[in-house]
Amino acid sequence: MIDSCTSESVAEHGEIKLLIPAVDVTDPELSIVIPALNEDRTIGEFVDWCKEGLCRSNIRGEILIIDSSSDKTAEIALARGARVLKTPRRGLGRAYIDAIPYIRGKYTILGDADLTYDFRKLEPFVEQFRRGSEYIMGSRFKGSIEKGAMPPLHRYFGTPLTTWILNMLYGSSFSDIHCGMRGVTRDALQRMELRSQSWQYASEMIIKSVHLGLRTSEVPVTFYKDVEGRQSHHRRIGWWSPWLAGWISIQAMLIWGADFFLIRPGILLLLLGAIGVGALFNGPVQIGSIGFSLHWMLLFLMFCLVGLQLFLMGILARIVYGYGDREKPWQIVFRFNLAVAISSALLMAGILSMLPLAREYALYNYRLPPGPSTASFQAVGGVGMVLGSFINFTYSMVYNAVRLSALRGKAVAKGHNR
Questions:
Q1: 108 near 185, Cβ under 8 Å?
Q2: β-strand partners of 138
Q3: CA 45 to CA 56: how far, in whole Å?
Q4: Do the beta carbons of residue 192 and residue 212 sit within 8 Å?
Q5: What distance in Å separates the CA atoms of residue 107 and residue 104, rounded to the nearest whole number?
Q6: Which residue in 65, 99, 70 sits closest to 82, CA to CA?
Q7: How far is CA 250 from CA 9, 68, 99, in A?
Q8: pLDDT at position 6
Q9: Strand 83-86 to 16-21 pairing
Q10: Which residue numbers in the chain have pLDDT < 70?
Q11: To 5 degrees, how large is the angle CA 309–CA 211–CA 396?
Q12: Pairing between strand 83-86 and 61-67?
């Protein structure tokens, strides 16, 4: 039960309940948004740390605790002056998603309530926000790590490895992707449209900061070991928890990696295949001691069609993932009328390219000539154009349907948030 002396107002919305302290902050510039699960041992001191950090940074801020606890976490946080958003227990990522409509500050700092990150030192984040950063990663490796705070397996293997993988896949340069203390503007957080329900939210945020072209920066943070008597959530779950968290992060990188796994290899294969098919369209080609003939042309045609499929699926994934303006140029290319025109042109060119082989077939009494002729090469190119025309036509229909569905979903979501 919440003490009426510490709570002037309670706002309810379905399963979610906002508890407002008696002394509340009006018109905050910064929101400190923290999920908490059974942290009554640390939450009181943590809120005090946040207040000290806000005071040192000379910024007006609120503290919003997203609480799914069965202990006294909510009561203690509320008594110390934090807003408390009571939500069902359904994952760390979901906690942030639930909190977005209740964030009032222009800037947001995220983290943990366990006193492992020093929220008394908010100045680097505030400074970067005021310089124009939209997404700020804390870095324990650029800051300081208390002895015993991070197991050697995490410090020297797990975190560096997964950080390297993400940087390689997305062309980023972060030094500590698992740092729980990070900052993001409220506008950028809304544009990210987070969907991850669990730990993978951390990777999703970083990936979307890259895809959305946000102005990013890194700041050093201090990382402490758990306070006496407190056991981390990883240890509460079991020895496999860090391995599970690592796999979940890699899984998110793979799922959200449309550019790396679809678009880039798709473009490469499409170009390689198109060059090969075009070079062999009028017959065999000899380069040095290597002869390229009809079988090579079939291989290049396969490259071309597989590359086209990968590329198109990557563009489609950008819409599904909500990458903002990055897919806008393709709206022109795949506009339905233009797609029909391109597909029709490819279809006619393909049919015309196959006619010489059909003529030869008739001249040889409805049998193919004994060896591959120029007409055979042109027919293979024609088959590719016909298949490409149907792929482009059907894809344009799916593209426009998915895009309209995505726009409708965004409109509904905006209506619910009002």
A1: yes
A2: 219
A3: 16
A4: yes
A5: 9
A6: 65
A7: 42, 27, 25
A8: 45
A9: antiparallel
A10: 1-14, 229-243, 245, 322-331, 406-418
A11: 30
A12: parallel
Q: To 5 degrees, how large is the angle CA 361–CA 367–CA 372?
A: 70
Residue by residue, DSSP assigns 174-209 as -S-TT-S-EEEEHHHHHHH-----STTHHHHHHHHH
For residue 356, the one-letter residue type is P
- Beta pairing class for 135-145 and 216-223: parallel
Is the entire prediction scored with pTM above 0.85? no
Q: What are 161's strand-pairing partners? A: none
- Considering only CA atoms, give the Rg of the chain: 28
The answer for residues whose C-beta is within 8 angstroms of residue 206's C-beta and 6 or more apart is 137, 166, 170, 172, 174, 177
Strands of the sheet containing 16-21, edge to edge, are 7-13, 16-21, 83-86, 61-67, 30-36, 107-110, 182-185, 135-145, 216-223
Total number of residues shown for the chain: 418
Cα separation of 141 and 154, whole Å? Answer: 12
Gap between the Cα atoms of 135 and 204, Å rounded: 13
pLDDT of residue 126: 97
Question: What kind and span of H or E run contains 286?
Answer: strand 285-287
DSSP state of 366: S
* Listed residue (9, 212, 15, 210) closest to 95, CA to CA: 15
Residue 388 has which token pair?
Answer: 């490409």
Q: Residues 395, 312: contact at Cβ < 8 Å?
A: yes
Helix axis angle for 374-417 and 336-363, nearest 10°, is: 160
Please give the helix or strand (H or E) that residue 218 lies within, else none.
strand 216-223
